[in-house]
Amino acid sequence: MILSHDHQFIFVKTEKTAGTSVEMALTSHCGPLDIVTPIAPEDERKRAALGLAPKNRIITGPYKAGSEIPDGVDFAKHINRNQVLFRFKNHSGARQIKEQIGDKLWDRYFKFTIERNPWDSQVSLYFYWKSVNPKFTMNFGTFLQRANEPLNWERYTIDDKIVVDEVIQYEKLTEGLAAIKDKIGIDISQSLPRAKSNTGRNKRDYRELYNAELRQRVAKGYEKVIDTFGYTF
Prior knowledge:
alpha/beta
């Protein structure tokens, strides 16, 4: 998740949508008071090699929504005299962000996120967990038993209403990022770094892992996403 005061945008990060690559590309354009949340350790090392790091993600009291937030680097100076009120996280959702920054900033800044075909994203998530956890032996069908709630829907909706200004579809990521360059003042469409790409999937077509039952299970759990964005198997 990134909130840029310099460019007046909020990037609401979703899962398995190239969000880390987008976040890494955006970080280099962020100013000293912008909020940048931590990412996975292996990707954080890549970002650190570029001289970049998370910042301003910790809110300590006393605090009013929309006021200047202490830099996370200076957290030790505040811990003894200020209560930690909130930590912006990698996947903080729209509701959480809006509650912390207030309606004024939320309404004024351009808000965007990314969504992906749910049948594809579930396969991506499955192979990701297999790659990071050697003890993960669950087959895909068992894994999908947890797919009864959309992975990212609640990140960019409040009470089932989309509250961001733009939902870029992962399948058209380059075009989507290019389309918003004037709104965020940054064009990262041609300069995305690779992140979390070594998952063992090897570009395997997601359809190969599904039978009729598993296909329907995702269709039922992700009905809102499928209906909203017109995804098909």
